[in-house]
What we know:
Elements: H1 5-77, H2 86-100, E1 103-108, E2 112-115, H3 132-137, H4 141-158, E3 167-180, H5 181-192, E4 198-207, E5 212-223, H6 257-265, E6 274-278, E7 288-292, E8 302-304, E9 309-319, E10 322-329, E11 332-334, E12 343-345, E13 352-357, E14 369-377, E15 382-387, E16 396-402, E17 405-409
Parallel strand pairs: 6-13, 9-14, 13-15, 14-16, 15-17
Antiparallel strand pairs: 1-3, 2-3, 3-5, 4-5, 6-7, 7-8, 9-10, 10-11, 10-12
Amino acid sequence: xKISKKDKLLLYILAIVVxxxxxYEIIYKLQTKWVQELKSINATKEAExxxxxxxxxxxxxxxxxMKILDAKIDDKTSRLYPKLVQEKIILDLDKLLKDxxxxxxxxxxxxxxxxxxxxxxxxTQLGDSTFDPITKEYKSMxxxxxxxxxxxxxxxxSSNAQKTTETVQQFKVTLSFSSSxxxxxxxxxxxxxxxxxxxxxxxxxxxxxxxxxxxTMTLEFYSVPKIDDSDNNYLSWALxxxxxxDIPFNSDSTTSSMQAIASSDETNKNQNDxxxxxxxNKSDLPAVMVGKSNDNSRLTYVYADSNNEELVExxxxxxxxxxxxxYRVGSNAYPADLNSLGQEFTPNSGNITIQVSSEKRVDxxxxxxxxxxxxxxxxxxxxVEVSGDDSSSPRIKVAGEGNKINVNQK
Length: 410
């Protein structure tokens, strides 16, 4: 059979169409689908990569935030006992009573673990006087609403406070004492300023003579386990050798061991007004810390942690013979309102002293430090005492404005 050229051409065209259709259906569509799947996988991987890079980029910030949070937790719990040990508490009470020159007998309750009792506030509803209806007649609705709110608050206060759901180890001690009012006030001040937090729950007084009072008080001790090893030495027993009395009722037979321990526990009063520390951000503590000296509660402390130089803005002002301070490190400030004059304080000496502690850099990548911008708007000399700084690459830089500022490198 002879095929014409026209038929051959048509057959060629048909073959091309069939091959093209087969390629489209069998190969091209599969490849297109595969390409789309690969694009989708690539987009997913790119999104995962972006999230991973953001996480990696935030690791240092989160690490710094964790260090600052750990420091704040440590500051809040530093005055609490890590564990209640009756022998240790006896030593603390003995020191407080001797320092205050108070004679007292001590009754110890068992150490228990329970919730903290709330404070019960009782109130008495008084009747109305004959003038009250006349006064209320001229009061506005706003004042009436305020009275209703106040009445509701009184009713709420009269109800018994509920115990907290959290439980802590606690210990109650009852003191029956006799002393002068001055010595009692000294004792309460010593308790308030003691290195450990002691709560005076109740206090009852009666007059014993013109110069003396007698009474009882209940002291409460609380403990919270620490998240770090800051109180590891607490359980170590400092007393060694012979101590106490050979004859219990003989006042002359007391050994000097107890007095030696009390003397060794007596710390020198710090004459610094403020403290600043700068160290490597590889340290367990924040790289920069600023606070009021002798602040056991650490409420005045602010922190920053990075491998860069942190700006510390520190202002000391004077008004009507009173002194005020405020400072900021990064986004943290004390007091919170920097537009105010600041927090009032009394200088510990004739001048104002800022103790700055630093340390040598640990390696070439250690860039952390503090640039202190100090503004002195007072009539006093501000001494900045810098100690431990790196001599070749200092962490501390001080720029002063205002009145007299002296920087001393140790």
